[in-house]
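Researcher: Good morning. I'm working through a list of sequences from a screen, and I'd like to move beyond sequence-only analysis. For each chain I'm collecting a predicted structure so we can compare shapes side by side. This is the next one on the list. No need for commentary yet; just the structure.
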Amino acid sequence: MSEVGTLKKGLDIFSLLLAQPNMTIPEMMDVLQFNKSTMYRLVSTLEQNGFIERNEDHRYTISKQLVQSLLHSKLPTNYELNWFSVPPMQELNERTNETIYAGILHRNEMVTTQVVSGEYYSTRTHSEVGSKKAVHANGIGKCILAYQSHDVQENMINQLAFEPYISHTIVNRQLFKQELLHIKERGYAIDNEEGELGVRCIAAPIFKRKEVIAAIALAGPSVRVSADKDEWHAQLVKACAAHISNAITYYE
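Model: Good morning. Structure tokens for this chain:
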């Protein structure tokens, strides 16, 4: 096996344990389809170098010492989100072939922090890390704001210009407030071609200490991410967001 091939397999194990902590070697072998000698050798190397650790039940997780060192180092404030979001996002992307992205609120805008591009989705509007979108015209922005306090919501709503990007954009403040209530009631947000014609997305919240700090979204052409699939896509996106939330909580 080449050095690059060995590195990739080691990263596959690492990513798997980020997404699914507390796995045994046989369980990891079953998921990754590595042979026994390769799996034991790579797991041993990762453990010896402090990347993963084994408990008394012979189950493996990412080393808490490693995670704490990373989270307390002088890294960007969204590093924790990026660290834990990629494996679940990649899994959702592989299942749906659609673009999966994560974002946060910064001032009165949504900022994209992570993207896993879809196989068939060529539109780049939603797919640039660091891109900024108006909160009222995209799923992630609406989703995060829906879970904020009344005062935070009112303050941000008062700052929004409610620019009508296309005919579907919500531009009425009262209707927007009602939309936020609906989002919190059902547990996910829908961007129904509100920021870009022909593009829909489903977004779900990411929690840390019972507070919503970000959201994850599935985006694609409206012919595939259609309204009749909203419930199915919502369950997948909510599960992805829950995996990230659980990982953030587990390694605190």
